[in-house]
Amino acid sequence: MSKSLIPDTLMLEERAKHAINAMIGMADHDHNYIPFFAANLNHKPAYVTHGDWDYGSSHGRMIDGLILARHMSGETFGKEIEERYRANLLSFFKEDGMSYRQINPTRDWEPNANLIDQRAVILSLTTWYMETGDPKVKEAADRHVAALRRIAVKERDVWYYPASEYKETGWPSANAIQLRLAPDPAAFCGRLVMPLLKYHELTGNTDAFELCQFFTALIIERSGVFNADGSFNDSLAYRSGHFHTRIGTLDAIARFGAFTGDAAIIAWVKKCYDWALTKCTAFGWTPGDLHEQAYEHETCSLVDLIATGITLARSGYVEYWGTVERFLRNHLAESQLLDLSWVEELQDKSQDIPANTSFYKVAERTRGSFAGYSAPNDFVCDVNEGRGHTSDLQLCCLGSGTRGLFMGWSNTITEKNGAISVNFLLNRGSKWLDVSSYLPHEGKVVLHIHTDLPRLQIRIPEWAGFTKIRFVRELGGEVTEGRGSEASSWVNKHFLLLGPAKAGETITVTFPLSFRKTLENAVGQTFETEWRGDDVVNITPKGKKKPLYSDRRVFDEAPMREGEYRRLEKEFVW
Prior knowledge:
This protein is 35% helix and 19% strand. It is of the alpha+beta class and 574 residues long. It has a domain at 111-223. Helix 2 (56-73) packs parallel to helix 4 (115-132), helix 4 (115-132) runs parallel beside helix 8 and helix 10 (243-260) runs parallel beside helix 12.
């Protein structure tokens, strides 16, 4: 690590530390450390509650998020609670290899293996194995993947699950299998492709690859989830075009297309992704679905947009680097709850309902969480349309938001065949170089080179043009200057080619900032947004409960602070 003056601008690894506070804080110490799922912060006093998703889904998301956040930040706080999450997760498996929801003392349900939960389970086992190489984790994952393959209904060219819940006695209805009902293939099959593919990459597990192959064929060729023009099927049977599961499926299938080198799959994903973007704002707010939940944005959906855009950008559609950076800088950062001065909390457990609801130190425990349902301009969604106010936090969005931080952090600087590419103009350290970003205050990025690099390139925002771009290179007292208008300076449309770089060199790139206003549409509502570069610095109308984009301060010169960049010799690749 290095410690020096750095720009006081967005730093994703520091945001990961805040997320760890919430992931640890949501544990219910009085209920076997099962994490609470949702929070109502608008209530006085605020409270957190348990829910249907407490088991495989919540534990899987927390384990995955904690591993990624610790990798980014180096933070060790709350390890003992994380170990309880891990032990709990393994205890949910039955002999058949599936992860089961447990009997809840305050809810009337039977234990079942919900198919949505299984995605978070294999996701966490994959990240856990990536971190530790623990053979007991691999054994659990292998058994789990084998079970997912075994229970799939296998047609000639596609596989699917005929119900949302599997039981130890099998599928609840043989008739569902005969009629090929396959409820919501995106939620139960499509999203599974992402962690299954990564598990295959790590271990060579062939069951995992087969599931990916046949689920991908199901989604593209047979399911009807996506219409021919790339739009989402909004029928009730398809969850009204639920955005998180649709875009999460696009993320999964994009990865499969990239892994298999299938250009047709990538083109199909791009078509659907471009349609989805027409329903979102340029700063990253997404609808919940196309009908009843349309006004409720889930951080989960935004992170799916981020991950899909990154895969498309790495596959050659480089324009999406800029799209994703706007999402990272704006609605992902704004969706993380850091100011809780507006939340009323109790300092004791006198009103708690065991295994159900807690009012105890909710603000303190949830700091670092991500919005469960937000409006474009307000952390609290309390509109007249749709379902009105429901909840403010969901644990799935905390896990997803943390993964979104990691996806941005891990793709800021990438290496391929010795060439280094700076894709996002965000503060970031690495073994190759450090990136110091003065945005949105100044159009300035400084690169500190640590080792000789045969080829270095940096993405320049499309609004910066090229005629007024300057770069200054300093090494051993020698200074050279260059311009973006010079011939042979640009590659891949948006990247300034800097060529070879030497250890100890400092390269300062400057460009003019863009000041503009746009009108953003969100399910029939219009918001005027003011931009400074890629950052929204104001939005009208302003939010009323916990306004977003209302206290972003910008200066002519970036404020500086003492800080450090985290450099790792080996980084996780997701």
